[in-house]
Amino acid sequence: MTPFELAEPTTLKDAIALLDPDDASVRPIAGGTALMLMMKAGVFRPSKLISLRNVKELTSINATSDGGLRIGAMTPLAVVERSAAVRAHAPVITRTMHTLSNIRVRNVATIGGSLAHADPHMDLPPVLIALGAHVVVTGPAGERTIPVEELFAGYFETVLGRNELIASVVVPAQGARRAAYLKCTTRAVHDWPALGVAVAVEGDGTTVRDARVVVSAATETPVRLAGVEQALRGGRVGDALWRQAGEAAAAEAETISDGQGSAAYKRQLVRVYVARALAAALKTDGGR
User: Fold this and answer.
1) Highest CATH level, class, for 5-51
2) What residues have CB less than 8 Å from 203, skipping those under 6 apart?
3) Which of 19, 146, 187, 208 could make an S-S bridge to 163, C-beta 3.0–4.6 Å?
4) What is the fold, at CATH topology level, of the domain defined by 178-281?
């Protein structure tokens, strides 16, 4: 690992001031679980890292006035996992954490860092997209909000400027929506997924009123399947509709080949797992 300078600001304003929009070798570091591996492998050689560990204003979890949830970007994933507020508001996030890597990683990795890293194999992005979440981003020009589904520009790429930081993740009130996340791994259950599927469904027990269906890992970025969502609206709840949605998802998703499997293999996974995720979301004891 090459030598680098480490800065440790204590406020968000100071952290942003230390970033250089013209120098890609100056980077913020949150938990560092991914970035440090890239540095050890020589993939990234920073000249300066801006540690966000001492920026305490980024570590809270709070309910919002409209029934939503705001999670500070530097909140460790293990804290998110154990949060009663998260469990009450969006239990699918709590369930997802149980197989997100391992507890040692979750103790260090942060929710904002996991989004900014933009690895398409991450478990949280598709879940947050299905829940309609957005990030609050802060930079020299002030704050802006970005829906999580619009955050990712490509493989390991986001739309963030080099002098912008994710300050918080906001999950809106879920109302009657029920959600589920399923993933398929080629090895251990906590390993990188070959496919991740997140769904959020609203219905009256017999008819689907609305749905959000998101796939990741099998695609270059987490992707909402708009055609599948349209096909689900107004459909009668049951296995026939879930199978129809699975077929539509396999046709719509642009799967890719990587170390977790071929594009054709992942297309078949999409077909099966979208149907399973929809069924899981609407089980009496699931979804909430």
Assistant:
1) alpha beta
2) 209, 237, 282
3) 19
4) Enolase-like; domain 1 (3.30.390)
Task: Name the residue with tokens 């570091």.
Answer: 29
Task: Determine how many CB atoms are found less than 10 A away from the CB of residue 40.
Answer: 10
Residues 6+ away with beta carbon under 8 Å from 86: 61, 69, 71, 80, 93, 94
What pLDDT score does 229 carry? 98
pLDDT digits (tens, 9 = 90+) for 197-238: 999 999 998 999 999 999 999 999 999 999 999 999 999 999
From-to residues of CATH 3.30.43.10 in the chain: 5-51
3-class DSSP string for the chain: CCCCEEECCCCHHHHHHHCCCCCCCEEEECCCCCHHHHHHCCCCCCCEEEECCCCHHHCCEEECCCCCEEEECCCEHHHHHHCHHHHHHCHHHHHHHCCCCCHHHHHHCEHHHHHHHCCCCCCHHHHHHHCCCEEEEEECCEEEEEEHHHCEEECCEECCCCCCEEEEEEECCCCCCEEEEEEEECCCCCCCEEEEEEEEEEECCCEEEEEEEEEECCCCCCEECHHHHHHHCCCECCHHHHHHHHHHHHHHCCCCCECCECHHHHHHHHHHHHHHHHHHHCCCCCCC
Residue type, 235: G
In the numeric block, which tokens belong to residue 2? 């090459």
pTM score, whole prediction: 0.94
Phi, psi of 139 (to 5 degrees): -150, -175
Give the mean model confidence (pLDDT) for residues 54-72: 95
